[in-house]
Amino acid sequence: MPKFPGVINSKLPNTGTTIFTVMSKLAADHDAINLSQGFPDFPCSEELVSLVNKYMQKGFNQYAPMPGIMPLREVLAEKIEDSYSAVYNPETEITITSGGTQAIFTAISAFVKEGDEVIIFEPAYDSYAPAIELAGGRPIFVQLKAPDYHIEWNEVKKMIRQSTRMILINTPHNPASATMSAQDMQQLDKITRNTDIIVLSDEVYEHIIFDGLEHQSVMRFPKLAERSIVIFSFGKTLHVTGWKMGYAVGPENLMKEFRKVHQFNVFSSNHPMQWAITDFLKNKDNYTYLPQFYQAKRDHFISLMKGSKFEPIECKGSYFQLMSYKNISNEKDTDFAIRLTKEFGVASIPVSVFYHKPVDNKILRFCFAKENETLEKAAEKLLMVG
Ligand code: GLN
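Above: the input entities. Below: the structure tokens describing the complete assembly.
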């Protein structure tokens, strides 16, 4: 096909292809072990698959209701009350989405207008800034502070202006693997009180948190919850990232605006899967094992890497382990990640890509949501580096 003959005024002139696609392709092209894009390489529950099959056979193959099926929203309302002592009305305050990324995009589209500012924390998940820019907004970047990637609240406070429409937080954090504490939430509450700021809280790794830490959802803080849309992901919790299923939760007046966009963004999400997930989540054992399960993987990976020249950076949550390679090379992290894939056969994600102006601390992100065997094979290769 000849090229489009006109002028394309790109809406995202500085955006390339997402790093997850780039690195996963590079891994495939070079037959490397893929610890880059975050997804499990082990199967999800067979029971869950047969439940989807059952509901497809039963004929649940047409559109689901726009906000999602009520039984699922009811199960989620119970799960939330149980976990965070917060009460949400499933009818008006919970919406099933086609994954966390769609929910984040929808929330930003619903509330951010031309000229609005949205505070995000860097390193930041790569969909945040483009979503804000497409809505006409301006991302305001605040850097998390090394080595533990904490938030300096005085700095955040200074960034708040009349035009601040939203603060986007992420805990447990991807890619930093840090978690926000109750004190962090209290600070966030304090600086947003008596403002019109909406908090968009990306909590897709809510169940992947370690060393006995409790996930501090914004939902645990009643005043914060009033101004928050909270995003969750079935992909992360049920090992089904390819299903692209998630949900958004927030007070009715915010959810009403969210749904105005959602209905024209995707209309509704996968129908048979919603029924399957409803049945599956009724058994709490199907997700309460996750902290232990992933902690064992994290610890296994770290112990396998002990003889290597990589230095682990503390991982409190999420299924990503950051590793410093400062003892190995001075190369740019993007170059090093490519070389590691091509020459050593292990793909990872260079952390500098999560900054608007690359900050290269010589750190790579490795996903440990993998079979032990995969982690062992990868570590064997990584031990040869340097
Ligand atoms: N959330 C996943 C990660 O951080 C990737 C999702 C995607 O590929 N868009 O690796």
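Note for the figure: The chain has two domains: 19-44+288-382, 63-284.
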